[in-house]
Design a protein that fits this description.
CATH topology: Rossmann fold
Largest sheet: 6 strands, mixed
Structural class: alpha/beta
Helix content: 25-40%
CATH superfamily: P-loop containing nucleotide triphosphate hydrolases
Shape: globular
Order of helices and strands: EEEHEEHEHHHEHEHEEHH
C-alpha cells in the first residue's frame, strides 16, 4: 500500500468580507497517496484554488486538519510552514516565476540555496538534465521558449526531491504541442514515483492524469479514476510538426 502524501479531514476555509462570510471550502475529506498523478478541477469559486493553497502551506484552514507525508501542518506558524514548503513541496506556476536576469542553472539552484545546501551546482544540473535542458543551462529565460521556461520551473520544483509537485495551471500559457511536451515531463516524473497534483481548467490536460478531483461550492463534487490516461508522448506523435508546417 502506498503511503498517504496528503490527508485532509473536515478541511474548511472561510473568508470574512465586510459583513459577509464566504465559505471557500466546506469540510473536505481527501487522501492522495504517494505516486498518484491528480488533476484538481472546478469552476471559478469552486474551492479548488483554496484547496491547493492549503495543501501547499500557502494559507491556513479555518477548521479541520491537513497532514503532509504524515506531518500535521494546519496549526504551524509561518516559519514552520516555510520550512515544510521548502522541504516537502515543489511548485510550478502558470507564469513560470523565473528570475529574468539569471541563468536557468542559477534559477534551479535557488531552492537549494534557501535550504542551505553547499554543493548546489551538481544537483541543479541533474534536475535540468531530467527535464531535457542539459544544453540550455546557461541561457536566461528571455533566451528560452515558453516550454523551455516551464521545464526550468519544473527542474527548480524537483531539485530538492520534494514529496510532491504542485502545479497551478502549468500549461495555461502554452500552445497545444508545448502543453503535451510539459505533460510528458510530468508523466515521466510520475512514472518514476513522484506525486504530482495540478490545477487545470482543461479537460484534455486533466485526462493525462490518473485521477480527477472536481470541486463545486467548496465541496468535492466528484472523485474519479481515469482508466486510460492520455499518453503525452503518443499524443505528440499525432500532432503536426511545426517545422514541417512552416516549410
Amino acid at each position: 500500500m502506498s503511503r498517504p502524501v496528503v490527508q485532509t479531514r473536515n478541511l474548511s476555509k472561510a473568508y470574512v468580507m465586510g459583513d459577509q462570510t464566504v465559505h471557500a471550502l466546506r469540510g473536505v475529506d481527501l487522501t492522495i497517496n504517494e505516486g498518484e498523478f491528480v488533476a484538481v478541477m472546478g469552476p471559478s469559486g469552486s474551492g479548488k484554488s483554496t484547496f491547493m493553497n492549503l495543501i501547499g502551506c500557502l494559507d491556513r484552514p479555518s477548521d479541520g486538519e491537513i497532514e503532509l507525508d504524515g506531518k500535521p501542518v494546519a496549526r504551524m506558524n509561518d516559519n514552520q510552514l516555510a520550512d515544510v514548503r521548502n522541504k516537502y513541496i515543489g511548485f510550478v506556476f502558470q507564469n513560470f516565476n523565473l528570475l529574468p536576469r539569471t541563468s536557468a542553472l542559477k534559477n534551479v539552484e535557488l531552492p537549494l540555496m534557501y535550504a542551505g545546501v553547499k554543493d548546489r551546482v551538481g544537483q541543479a544540473k541533474a534536475a535540468l538534465e531530467k527535464v531535457g535542458l542539459g544544453q540550455r543551462m546557461d541561457h536566461k529565460p528571455s533566451e528560452l521558449s515558453g516550454g523551455q521556461q516551464q521545464r526550468v520551473a519544473i527542474a527548480r520544483a524537483i531539485v530538492t526531491n520534494p514529496v510532491m509537485i504542485l502545479g497551478d495551471e502549468p500549461t495555461g500559457n502554452l500552445d497545444s504541442r508545448t502543453s503535451e511536451e510539459i505533460m510528458a515531463v510530468f508523466q515521466d516524473l510520475n512514472r518514476h514515483g513522484k506525486t504530482v497534483i495540478i490545477v487545470t481548467h482543461e479537460e484534455e490536460i486533466a485526462h493525462h492524469c490518473n485521477r480527477i478531483i472536481r470541486f463545486r461550492d467548496g465541496r468535492v463534487q466528484k472523485d474519479e479514476r481515469v482508466e486510460n490516461p492520455t499518453d503525452a508522448r503518443e499524443a505528440l506523435k499525432k500532432l503536426p510538426d511545426p517545422d514541417a508546417v512552416l516549410a
